[in-house]
Amino acid sequence: MVDVNNERRIERRLRYYWPIWFAEDFSDTLSQGHMVDISSSGAAFSCRSWENCPHPGQRLTTRFSVPRFESEEAFNLASFTRSARVCRVDNVSDHVRKVAIQFAQPLPFRPGEQSENISQTEEILRNAIV
Questions:
Q1: 3-state helix, strand, coil in the chain (%, to 5)
Q2: How far apart are CA 83 and CA 16, in angstroms?
Q3: How far is CA 22 from CA 52, 69, 127, in A?
Q4: 3-state SS of 49-98?
Q5: Backbone φ, ψ for residue 87 (5° rounding)
Q6: Domain 11-129 carries which CATH code?
Q7: Residue ranges per domain, the chain?
Q8: How many C-beta atoms lie closer than 10 Å to residue 3's C-beta?
Q9: What is the pLDDT along the chain (130 residues), one digit of tens a residue?
Q10: Sign (positive/negative) of CA torsion 59, 63, 69, 70?
């Protein structure tokens, strides 16, 4: 659970674990990561810590899908391609890094604020993965 007292974000993030593809330029070979969380202005994802892992200040092009909730029990996926700047890279382990990015253009909705009932949103996503 997030400690609200230490939270500096102005927007609630949606936590989910679906693929994200990224590269400096989409004409390059794409790398795959896994989304950790997302807001309308940025995201965090995990990736392997190989020599081409993104670094702070780097510009990336990303491609990903975000669940867009339509009712209490259903959602569609909205797919996006966004240019982004790498804000931070954290070591999770010897083989995994967590990369925080800020989008050049925000998403047209707030992914983490689509439902008043966050636990219900998380349950819908868990059931969709099974």
A1: 15, 45, 40
A2: 20
A3: 11, 25, 27
A4: CCCCCCCCCCEEEEEEEEEEECCCCCEEEEEEEEEEEEEEEEECCCCEEE
A5: -90, -35
A6: 2.40.10.220
A7: 11-129
A8: 6
A9: 343 444 466 788 899 899 999 999 888 889 999 999 999 999 999 999 887 789 999 999 999 999 887 666 667 889 999 999 999 999 999 999 999 999 999 999 888 887 655 555 555 555 554 3
A10: positive
Tokens of 69: 């909730």
Instruction: Take residue 81 and report the two structure tokens written for it.
Output: 């391609």
Q: What angle do CA 129, 41, 65 make, to 5 degrees?
A: 30
**Burial class for 64, CB neighbours closer than 10 Å (0-12, 13-18, 19+):** buried
